[in-house]
Design brief:
By secondary structure, the chain is an all-alpha fold. It is built from 8 helices and no strands. Helix 2 (34-64) runs antiparallel to helix 3 (69-89).
Length: 182
């Protein structure tokens, strides 16, 4: 086995730690204050909340009118993607704050979701009740297209999409970016 020389530009442990820190967002991060963390969470969760409300509405409508079962899941996915695209390119803080505090409030969504699930069970719509239950529990998060869109778009920043959001709209430079691309 040949004796390998260490390349002077090889990745150091410090650089690896910076990359890990950049790619895994945490609400406990030391870079943002509490208000900024709430803002990032509201921005990130908006498409998911739209997905949940759309799924609850389409499931309820499906009980009363003959629509295809795949529309019940396709429409919320489309709404999620459209909201995610608009949200990525155009951040309007006051609108997101208003929606998060009113009709897209996670607590209200979960309470109304439980009500809709009980209603669907009472009407015998077990498939829709199961889909909504899985969604409320977070199991359907992997089918929400906005998360894949955000992941692809944030690659150019070489960081998690939540950090990338704050960097894009506020021009914030995170400490883990120092020598990150060198």
């Amino acid at each position: 086995m040949k004796n390998r020389k260490r390349h002077p530009d090889s990745v150091s442990f410090d650089n690896i730690n910076k990359r890990i820190e950049a790619n895994f967002y945490s609400q406990n991060n030391p870079y943002l204050n509490e208000q900024e963390k709430v803002e990032v969470a509201s921005w990130f969760m908006l498409p998911s909340n739209v997905f949940t409300v759309s799924l609850l509405l389409t499931s309820t409508i499906a009980v009363f009118s003959p629509i295809q079962w795949f529309f019940v899941i396709d429409f919320p996915m489309l709404m999620n993607l459209l909201t995610g695209i608009i949200n990525w390119y155009m951040y309007v803080r006051i609108i997101i704050r208003f929606l998060t505090l009113t009709i897209l409030n996670p607590v209200l969504i979960n309470i109304s979701g439980i009500g809709v699930i009980v209603f669907l069970i009472a009407k015998g719509s077990y498939l829709y009740a199961t889909m909504n239950t899985l969604n409320i529990l977070g199991v359907l998060a992997f089918i929400e297209p906005h998360s894949y869109f955000y992941s692809c778009k944030s690659r150019q920043y070489k960081m998690n999409c939540q950090y990338a959001f704050f960097k894009r709209f506020y021009g914030y430079r995170f400490p883990f970016e120092d020598d990150f691309w060198d």
